[in-house]
Design brief:
Blueprint: E1 3-5, E2 12-14, E3 26-27, E4 34-35, H1 50-58, E5 61-67, E6 71-78, E7 100-104, H2 109-118, E8 124-129, E9 134-140, E10 150-152, H3 153-158
Parallel strand pairs: 6-7, 7-8
Antiparallel strand pairs: 1-2, 3-4, 5-6, 8-9, 9-10
Length: 162
Amino acid sequence: MGRVKCPGCEREFNTDFIMCEVCKIWVCPECKEVNSRVLRYCKKCGYDSKKLEEVLSENPVSFSWLKKEDFVIYEIRIEEAILPDDIKRLELPMIPVGKGVILTGRAPIWLYGYLIHYFHPARFVATYDPRLGGAVVVASHIKDVSPGDLLTDDVLDRGRIF
């Protein structure tokens, strides 16, 4: 197999690995089609990998993200029922440098607790609540944003809070 350059981080890796370990972008090893979501099979060439199915069955939780100027929104995706023991084998995204983190998606409260602790080094951590129309800050290392502050949908769409 050849090497492919990840469109997210420009790092080269063997297509045998089918996923960039830095930015979690999936690449079809046959036609090099890129998919930022979990790639179960390639729609372009029809490639279906048992190796990929094994990886997916080992990782029932995945993340997608949207980078904004002041923060990164991480969406939690759960493919199947998970147990607390699954925390031990999660493949977590990188903590963004100089930005806040907003978590969204349906997940058990214990998983949110674990992720809030994991992302604690970020400038701030917030969790999205659709009933409030925004993200509630739960931890902060900066004076401009405090726990309890609501980052409204307008702020999230704009991508700037400072």
